[in-house]
Amino acid sequence: MGNIIVIAILAVVIVFALRSSKKHMKGQGGCCGGSEDIHIEQEKKKLDGPVIATRIMHIEGMHCEHCKDTVERAIGRIQGAAAEVDLGRKIAVVSLDRPVPDDQLITAVTLMDYKVTSVE
C-alpha cells in the first residue's frame, strides 16, 4: 500500500514537471530570472543612420521573453547595431548602420551566457 502512494505522488510530480517544461521550451514560461507576467515591452533601439548590413545570428539557450530582451539589449549596447530576436527560430536579426565585426556581436551575446552557433 505504501508503494502505491509513493508511485502516485511521483506520477503527479512528473506530470507537473512535464507541463512546466513544455511551456518553458515554447518560450511561454518564466525562466532565467524573467517572468511572462512582468514582461515589459521595451522600446526598440533606433539606429543613427540607414541600415547598411544585416546579420542573422543563430543562438542557442533562449527560451522566453526575458531571454529575448537580454539578447536584444546586449546587441543594442553596441554602437551601430540593433537586434530583433525570433524565439521560435532561435535567431537574432541584427541591423547595422556601420561596420561591426561579427566577433563583437558574438561576444556581446556569449557574455550573456547564450551560445552563438553561426552568423550569416
Q: What topology emerges from the helices and strands here?
A:
Layout: H1 2-25, E1 53-60, H2 65-76, E2 81-86, E3 91-96, H3 102-110, E4 115-119
Antiparallel strand pairs: 1-3, 1-4, 2-3
Strand content: 15-25%
- Percent of residues in helical segments? 25-40%
Overall domain count: 2
Q: Cα distance, first to last residue?
A: 60 Å
Tally the beta strands: 4
Q: Main beta sheet: strand number and arrangement?
A: 4 strands, antiparallel
Number of helical elements? 3
General description of the model:
The chain is of the alpha+beta class and 120 residues long. It has 2 domains: 1-29; 51-119, Alpha-Beta Plaits, CATH 3.30.70. Helix content is 38%, strand content 21%. It is built from 3 helices and 4 strands. The protein has helices spanning 2-25, 65-76, 102-110; strands at 53-60, 81-86, 91-96, 115-119. Strands 2-3-1-4 form a 4-stranded antiparallel sheet. Strand 2 (81-86) and strand 3 form a beta hairpin. The longest helix has 24 residues, at 2-25. The chain is elongated and about 70 Å long.
Identify the notable features of this structure and list them briefly.
Alpha-Beta Plaits; 120 residues; alpha+beta; single chain; elongated; four-stranded antiparallel beta sheet; 21% strand; 38% helix; 2 domains
In brief:
The chain is an alpha+beta fold and 120 residues long. It has helices at residues 2-25, 65-76, 102-110, and strands spanning 53-60, 81-86, 91-96, 115-119.
